[in-house]
Design a protein that fits this description.
Layout: H1 8-41, E1 43-47, E2 62-66, H2 70-73, E3 80-84, H3 101-112, E4 123-130, E5 135-138, E6 146-147, E7 150-151, E8 172-175, E9 180-184, E10 206-207, E11 211-220, E12 226-227
Length: 242
């Protein structure tokens, strides 16, 4: 007959705790890996820092962006997209003092799992008006933008001053080059969008390679949770570019 030594129960408890701790760490690592893959290739979270897309998106709204679907379907006129600054769109940001290592580590983890969106400050959000090859002109006698000769009525989503129906007070006449988009904000009088950057080497166009994906859902604040409307019917009458 054998009996356990007095230290045997303690050893078993220690081994049990270590096994439990190992399993928890494995679960956390797997969850972090899955979140990283989802954020990198499927969905990302961003916050809205400016009023350029009001009334569609408000300052401090948090949105989800579909990175995956557009890789196969491409983009449509009306899509609200997030894109990385192609150069010259954003004002230089003063260099902040480096955060303590622990804070940086926590922020990195939150970014990986999609809870934080620190890099949102390097991105912008606008609506697709012109696709590659489109001839986009502002404006006709009614104050409407025309695309390939067809006028579009954007009043359902534009945030304009009372009594103003002009889609833009800045005239333009552009042909969107291949591999690029012409992007405008819904709050036209308060949006430094493609119109304000025509003097840049890019001509105000945004390369498709800079586009992160299509915004499809507002997730915060809770009272604004809902899908983001592409208003695609606005562009139904637009013919293909010649």
């Amino acid at each position: 007959m054998t009996t356990d030594s007095p230290s045997a129960p303690t050893s078993r408890r220690r081994r049990g705790f270590l096994i439990f701790l190992r399993d928890v760490l494995i679960i956390i690592l797997i969850a972090a890996l899955v979140s990283f893959v989802v954020k990198t290739f499927v969905v990302r979270s961003f916050y809205i820092p400016s009023a350029s897309m009001e009334r569609t998106l408000l300052i401090k709204d948090r949105i989800l962006v579909d990175e995956l679907t557009p890789r196969w379907t491409g983009y449509e006129r009306g899509d609200v997209v997030v894109f990385k600054d192609p150069g010259g769109w954003l004002d230089p940001v003063p260099q902040k003092p480096a955060a303590p290592p622990l804070v940086q580590a926590v922020d990195w983890v939150l970014n990986v799992v999609g809870i934080s969106a620190t890099d949102a400050q390097d991105h912008l959000v606008k609506r697709v008006i012109g696709l590659p090859g489109d001839h986009v002109v502002c404006c006709n006698a009614l104050g409407q933008i025309t695309i390939n000769g067809a006028p579009i009525d954007e009043l359902s989503y534009l945030n304009l001053p009372e009594g103003d129906t002009a889609a833009s007070n800045e005239p333009f006449d552009v042909v969107v080059p291949e591999g690029s988009l012409w992007l405008l904000g819904d709050n036209r009088d308060r949006s430094r969008d493609a119109r304000a950057h025509q003097d840049l080497p890019s001509g105000g166009f945004v390369p498709l390679d800079n586009v992160v994906g299509k915004a499809f859902l507002t997730t915060w604040p809770l009272n604004r949770m809902g899908t983001i409307d592409g208003h695609h019917d606005t562009f139904n009458g637009v013919p293909d570019p010649e």
